[in-house]
Design a protein that fits this description.
The structure is a single chain. It contains eight helices and 13 strands. The protein is α+β, with helices and mostly antiparallel strands and 245 residues long. The protein has two domains: 140 residues, no CATH class; 82 residues, no CATH class.
């Protein structure tokens, strides 16, 4: 594995937890999820793997972190803002998406005051919720992509990523209001770094591949890439042994 093993203690390179390593479903789950489209979908996946066998993208001679997510909400996120690692090809760029193109592009999550309070206290027992519920929400800061960096709750600053985990939100691009309940209005799905799969897959016919480079049409470039593409190139493994090293 290029990236090494996260799970050497279990004699494994990756796990099937998408939040940690790699999303994975069994053949039985594929049949259940895809129904009559099973064969066609599996053929697409097999062809994608076969057609790119032995190839990988590099930046500055180093294999890239090929991050992806479901839906960016209109603007991708930078790796620095999510993971604290500034990578020149994982910067925030415009990635136009619409509700007509992306299922569940906008979602809402509602929490009763007692549930909201207890959820925050489970992670931040120092928060003060002794006042009226309409005073619990303080200031909110967002980054350049429109995602929440921090929101003050009960006098405690909570990060957007932590809020996403605590309340099972689809992304950190959200607004929060109190109207008797606490209501999250969420846009997009996932961490937002790299390629947005929900929009790139339908537009994949506009992606032009070659042996030595990856070129994208102007339409696809704005919506699928958050990389500095002039610094990326496709390399091939020199041998089968290198491919598995």
């Amino acid at each position: 594995m290029v990236t090494g093993s996260k799970h050497a203690d279990k004699n494994a390179d990756v796990c099937t937890d998408p939040a940690c390593c790699q999303a994975w479903i069994s053949d039985a789950e594929m049949h259940k999820n895809w129904g009559d489209d099973y064969a066609a979908n599996l053929d697409k996946i097999t062809a994608a793997v076969t057609d790119t066998d032995g190839e990988y993208l590099v930046s500055g001679g180093t294999p890239i972190l090929a991050a992806f997510h479901s839906s960016s909400g209109g603007t991708t996120e930078s790796s620095a803002d999510v993971w604290g690692t500034d990578l020149p090809y994982l910067v925030s760029v415009s990635s136009p998406e619409t509700e007509a193109e992306v299922p569940n592009f906008k979602t809402t999550m509602t929490a009763a005051p007692i549930d909201f309070r207890d959820t925050v206290l489970s992670a931040h027992p120092e928060a003060d919720f002794t006042g009226a519920a309409n005073t619990w929400i303080g200031g909110m800061t967002k980054d350049d992509s429109g995602r929440v960096k921090t929101v003050t709750l009960g006098g405690v600053a909570v990060t957007g990523e932590e809020m996403r985990t605590l309340f099972s939100l689809r992304s950190t691009e959200f607004d929060l209001v109190y109207n008797g309940n606490f209501v999250f209005s969420v846009t997009g799905n996932g961490h937002g770094v790299g390629m947005g799969v929900a929009i790139s897959v339908p537009r994949s016919s506009r992606i032009i591949r070659s042996q030595s480079s990856i070129r994208r049409t102007r339409v696809a470039a704005a919506s699928t890439a958050s990389a500095s593409r002039e610094n990326l190139r496709v390399s091939k493994y020199s041998s089968a042994a290198e491919a598995v090293s």
